[in-house]
Design goal:
single chain; 309 residues; mainly alpha; Fumarate Reductase Cytochrome B subunit
């Protein structure tokens, strides 16, 4: 494949990723307000998060200022993101493979950052030998990341395939995702160990994307690996792997949303709008006819048998 073809394909795949990622993120951000109820613990509850308390415990809580502990919230997020704390506590068997898989991706994200910095440096006229951070750090981060990712991908694939409970709840697309990622990890590991000057070639690729002129001497395995990585990015927004974005909203807009509803507030207006939507549920206990709103149903005290008369 010629350098110009690889360049055009790279731009095309990156454009798909950026566009789809932005659209799906905006859709997640614009979803309606969730069913609001008190879920505990909320880490930002100052002095109460440890035991699952709430400002609602306070007498006349509405007259008192709400105190938030953002440090506790940040610590909770750090443990969850870096160590997959909830998975470790609730599904230890899955954690043993999911953790190296995710940590490998974290390392590869850091390696990608170094690659972009190296590309900028190469455009500025610096060589890889003049920047030891990229020359030494990039192969190290990438190699460990590929290795951990490959172990995790293989383990997750066979665990989901052999465990009856997991296999029945795993969509076929999940197995395809793991195979694509495994191909990316394996080709990357192959490139790191077989190509002399791996950092320099990846710097050249990143610099070529910035200047629209790829160097012609990039080894085939490096080009194949980078294309696998770009293919992975391009289809990522269309898969359940977008959970790393959805998880932010799951925590901050659902689990930790304890904002009180005040008359005339934005939240108050959103909730009233949703409560006035017509209900079309078919369940007999709801007694919806497509015209009644949630407010009508919630304030209807008649029993089903009385309503039928």
């Amino acid at each position: 494949m010629s350098a110009s073809t690889v360049l055009l394909l790279s731009y095309f795949l990156l454009a798909i990723f950026v566009l789809a990622f932005v659209i799906r993120t905006l859709k997640l951000a614009r979803l309606p307000v969730h069913l609001r109820w008190e879920l505990s613990p909320v880490p930002h509850e100052k002095g109460k998060g440890e035991y699952g308390g709430s400002y609602l415990e306070e007498v006349d809580w509405w007259t008192k200022p709400r105190e938030k502990d953002l440090v506790s919230e940040a610590i909770y997020m750090f443990k969850e993101i870096l160590f997959l704390k909830a998975l470790f506590e609730h599904n230890r068997k899955l954690w043993w493979f999911s953790y190296p898989f995710h940590f490998g991706l974290y390392l590869l994200t850091a390696a990608a950052g170094l690659m972009v910095l190296g590309g900028v440096a190469s455009v500025a006229g610096m060589t890889v030998g003049e920047w030891a951070l990229v020359d030494r750090g990039l192969p190290l981060l990438a190699g460990v990341g590929y290795g951990l990712g490959a172990i995790g991908a293989v383990g997750l694939f066979f665990l989901r395939w052999t465990d009856d409970g997991m296999r029945n709840s795993t969509a076929p697309a999940t197995f395809i995702n793991l195979l694509v990622l495994l191909a990316m990890f394996v080709t990357g590991l192959w490139a790191v160990f077989s190509v002399s000057g791996f950092a320099g070639h990846t710097m050249g690729f990143a610099g070529g994307l910035l200047t629209a002129s790829l160097p012609p001497q990039i080894p085939g395995i490096v080009s194949a690996h980078l294309l696998f990585a770009l293919i992975f990015l391009a289809y990522l927004p269309f898969t359940q792997m977008m959970h790393f974005v959805a998880k932010y909203f799951t925590y901050h807009e659902v689990r930790w949303d304890d904002e009180p509803v005040t008359a005339g507030s934005k939240l108050d207006r959103e909730l009233k709008k949703l409560l006035n939507q017509p209900v079309t549920w078919a369940a007999p206990h709801i007694r919806a006819d497509g015209k009644k709103t949630w407010v009508d149903i919630a304030t209807d005290t008649g029993r089903p048998e009385e309503s039928a008369k």
